[in-house]
Every structure is written in C-alpha cells, then in structure tokens.
C-alpha cells in the first residue's frame, strides 16, 4: 500500500483539496507488464472486478449451455447492476426459469440504486429484495451452476463445489496461487491476488480469441456478452456502461468495490488492473478513464468520457465548486 | 499531500484492503506543535470544521445578543446537522423569529439525512427544503448577522460584510493570512489555511477561557454551546454527537467534508486539526477518535467510542466482513 502513487486529484477553487493514491498494471497476453503505477506485487481483493472470472465455471461446466443461458444472462452474471427495472425483471425471469426465487439468493438485500424505482418502493411501502442487490446476476449464475452440479444450497460456502471451481479458475487466469479470500459484500468469497495477477487475468480474457481451449472459449463468450450488453453490466449513469459505449475499439470494463477497476482490450490482448488505495469509486472511475485515454481507447473530448475523466464537483445549489481530474501526465496527453 | 502518512486501515478477512493517509496536528495555546502526523504546512480547506470560526462574527458583532441567540442556536450555527425534525424545527423557528423563511437561505437544498424523515417526505411527495441542508444553522447565523448589520441579501458573496468579517476572524485565529478560498457545498466561501494554522485556531478556542478579550469571549461561548448541545451539532449516529457525549473531560469536536475533523480541549488549552488526504469520512471519524484515545480524552473500551474507532465492516446480509482500524500506535495503546 505504501508504494501507491498519486493518480487522481480533487480540486476546489484554486486549491488541491484531496488526493487519491493507487496502483495500476497494464499487462500483455504473455504476462509481461507494459506499464505500471504503484506496486504490481501489492496483494489486493478485486471484489466485483473479478465477476467475469467468477462466471467462468458457469460456462466451462456446460451449465450455461444446459440451461440456455444467453449472452444477456452471461452479462448479468458479470454485472454490478443498478437494480433498475431492466435488471430486476431479467434476474427474476432467470430465477423463475430455474424454478427458484428471491429467497434462494444468498446475497443479502440492497435498495435499488435506480432512484425512480427506489422512491417508488418507498412510496409503496415495499422493502428491498435480494434481486435488487447489485450482485443478484452473479448469484443467479452461481445458482445455475449449483443446480447443474446437483450441489447443496449454500453456494457461497468456500468449500462448496461452485466456489472451489471459482477458486480454480481464479488461480488459472491470475497464474498464481491465491493467498486466501475475504467475504464480499454479497457473502461470496472474494479471492485475493496481486495487482499483476489481476492484470494477467484480464489479459487472459483479452487474448481469449487467440486460443481454442475450454477456458479461453468461456472467457471469450463472457467478454462478448459484456460488450454486447453494457447496460446490463452496470446501468445508466454508471462508468462501466457509459465508458464501454464510448470506446473506440472493443472494450470490456468492470468496477469493483473499494476503488477497483479492470479493463479488457480484446483487439490488443491487453488487460488492466487498477486499485485506488483508499477505496474511492470517484477516483477509480477517473483513473480507469484516464488510462484508457492514454491508450487511445477513449477520446478525452467525448462528453461521455469527460463525465468520469474530469467531472465537475457541484454543490447543493448546483454550482460548480471544483473538479475531479487525473494527475498530470496520466492520460498521456501533451 | 505527498507527505501524508498512513492513519487508518480497512481490513477484510486476513487482508489489508484499503488504507487512508492523512495529516494531523496537535497544538497548544502558544501555537506550539505538541505532536504531528504528515505535513503541518499542507494548505487545506477545513470545510465545515471551520463553522465555529465562521460563527465568531455573529457573537463578536453583538448580533447574537441583540437577537437573543441562546446557546442552542449558537450550537446550530456551528453545526453540520442531520436535518432531523429536531434540527429542522429549531432552524425554522429561528428563521421565523428573524421574520425570514426557507427562501432566504442561500445554502441549496439537501435531503434530510434522518432516514425516517427522508422516507416520510418521499411518501408525502415532498421535496427537500433548504432548511434540511446540514448548513442551515450556519446560514441562519449569517442571516442574523446580515440583518444586524443592515447588509445586502447575498450574504455568501466573498465581499459581503458577513464574509469579510468571517475572513478577518479566520485569519486572526489561524494567525496567518489565508491564501484564498474555495466555494463550499453550501455556497459560502471556505477559507484556506495550513494544518498548523487550523490547529492554532482550535487551540485559540480551547484556551479562550484563559483570556478576556472580545474574540476569546465569543470563542468561549461557542465552545460552551457546542458542548451543551452535542445533538444539535450533528445528530444521532454521527461521530461529533456520540464522541462529545462519550468524552471524559470537556470536549468540542467538529467534522468537515473531504475528511476533515477538528477538536477543542478546553481543560488543556489544546487544539487538533486532522485531514484525511483522500477525503474519506470513515477515516476521519476513526482517526480523530484514535487521537483522542491517545490523549486520554476518550476510552477505547467505550462502545460509543468503538463504533467510530474500530467499526466493523458489514455486508448486505449483515455479516461482519472486516474492520476499520487506526494504524498501529496511533491510539498510543501498548
């Protein structure tokens, strides 16, 4: 952590008010580091940025094919969605097709992050369901695999066949033994790796089309699904959705709690792992946008990019009082 | 900012997941530094941690006395309140006593942070008012002074007599020229100083009882008001309120946006200035509690202290998945 370096600044008037440190690694498909900030050997929990890895066993096991899981549901399995009506309906239908319901999810309840739905539920006296949890798509994927395997109901137990297969896949794509796990916001184990390990994993996904083994084929399907359904991976106003739509070449990206972000560049076989050391999402959004501008994948002049790269800080009265911006040089702009 | 040092850690399972850097200065009434972390010369915007300074002209001008502003309203003038019914009613009454109303506040609207009231307003189809803004007490103080001076309505303009007097007071207690200001969340100017300057200011408040000049008398009244009404300074569940109640000796503390916190120890004539470099409140709450434990003002074993010093990190299902904790040694515990 101590070797983290400054990546994002918060300005207010003429002053640098706050600053976010972090680590980032850009890696090619051979595992080589193309560029890095901070310490590539820092141990990290990639949180929801690991969801496409956690979805690998769903595809590799044959469960996705057996249950007719199309690319929309694969995108949801990789998603931290808004709990907007779009997402809630899709997950409910998926669960119903499995003969299951909200009570079978083990992700806990979370209020919808879609303001209109959240307010409507408050007005209607409804309390949030598990399906509204941003991880309910990932958990529907876990439930599909559980059913396919005929395994027990407690699919978040680290010794459950689903999580054992997730760990195996995680260690395969990170190309290292995981030093352990923490329990995630949705109660599933979240396996640890290094910044470099996570970048290698993303480069594995990015280069999947260059290979023809079962894991690469599964990875390729998941990347295609994320890119085909950016609105399912996160939702309106969210960085994942807007930046994937704004990309000038094929791009899959995924945020994670505590300042994580990853990117997959299939055309180049390149993966990116980013962690803001203090865990701030405002900074991980800005820094991933900056690095993608640096690589020429995003255009800094695109308004959809600017809203994450250089968002204004506004006050309660709507006045612009400051700006979030990447440190000088991070975008690579002159 | 670069000289900030690690103050607070976020642990998940066996892993250090995130880390907050910061600056802190403990200062005596002569302006001498007793102890410091990070860089005492860092320029900072103390945000709402400066509210008791911004209230000095209200008292020194005679406006508070002329308008019968008691210690409850002085506490509100120094507050970042919850917008709970308690606060909303008190501010509305204050405004009515001035012959003014919600529309005279220039702080912008903010949804109440009191969940029950916020949900009730959504159910009733009501939109947030300016009085619900956490700064509405400070602004009521500004309006009182404006009326007393017979000045213009735009009391947040940096050249308005109210803000000129705030700047004068700010430079007096920080004992340095302010390098400028940023516009705060509530549209008032927020004057910059150094970490050391802000600690000197807090030591001025802490030692006010040792002197008998007009500014010291005003400072003493404000500190007494904050300590007498901790529930008005913030509200239930907030660090300011709970830690002031838990203090083992007289103590006034005040949070500010972007990871600020200050403390005033009247018995010792000591002031504390704290800034988390990345702006995180979870870290400023923890670090100020830790430093106050270090000084023997708070008891680390007190549950009301532990909820900010060592709060568990819980997930959507209510499971404890980690812990926020100060870095080893910060509390001074063996």
From TrEMBL, chains A, B:
<dbReference type="InterPro" id="IPR010349">
    <property type="entry name" value="Asparaginase_II"/>
</dbReference>
<protein>
    <submittedName>
        <fullName>L-asparaginase II</fullName>
    </submittedName>
</protein>
<dbReference type="Pfam" id="PF06089">
    <property type="entry name" value="Asparaginase_II"/>
</dbReference>
